[in-house]
Amino acid sequence: MRVHIATDHAGLDLSHHLIEHLTGQGHEVIDHGPTAYDAEDDYPSFCINAALAVVADQSAGVEALGIVLGGSGNGEQIAANKVKGIRAALAWNLDTAKLAREHNDANVVAVGGRMHSVEDATAIIEAFLAEPFSNAERHARRIGKIASYETTGEVPA
């Protein structure tokens, strides 16, 4: 699977670890930055670029998901969710990571690098990447309503 990853300075060490770890598991990992530590960096561009790449890959039929990292993961999730077609979920344990995929077909996971040990964050991300969408009708219907609003701006019934 192709995995797009982006971070800010707070998640940079975790990002480097994940790039090496996931590549070792056979994933094609594409780093959207930053390339060096800068305490004043601005995560939105990095996260938006990773999210845009996920949408482009999925639209082209490439199996792809995204990871955005920060201190808490909150801002990074918000930035990724501004991209049409992205469903970014903040995961803080194995259950929220799995449910984001199973119920919401989330295509980007946000994790707080300052909230977890490297081992726990890695396990959360592995769970997210491994879990398939259930394709249950109720979940697909709800995702469809979100996508409809995203396209039309009209609140679904």
Topology:
Layout (H helix, E strand, L loop, with lengths): L1 E5 L5 H13 L3 E4 L11 H17 L4 E7 L3 H8 L6 E3 L3 H9 L5 E5 L5 H13 L6 H16 L5
Helix pairs in contact: 1-5, 2-3, 4-5
Outline the structure in words.
This protein has 6 helices and 5 strands. 37% of the residues are buried. It has 157 residues and is an alpha/beta fold. The longest helix has 17 residues, at 43-59. The chain has one domain: Ribose 5-phosphate Isomerase B, Chain: A. The protein is globular and about 45 Å long.
For the termini, the CA-CA separation is 36 Å
- Main sheet attributes: strand count, strand direction, barrel closure: 5 strands, parallel
Please count the beta strands (DSSP E, at least 2 residues each).
5
Enumerate how many helices there are, as a single number.
Answer: 6
Give a quick rundown of the structure:
The protein is of the alpha/beta class and 157 residues long. It has a single domain, classed as Sugar-phosphate isomerase, RpiB/LacA/LacB (Ribose 5-phosphate Isomerase B, Chain: A), CATH 3.40.1400. It is 48% helix and 15% strand.
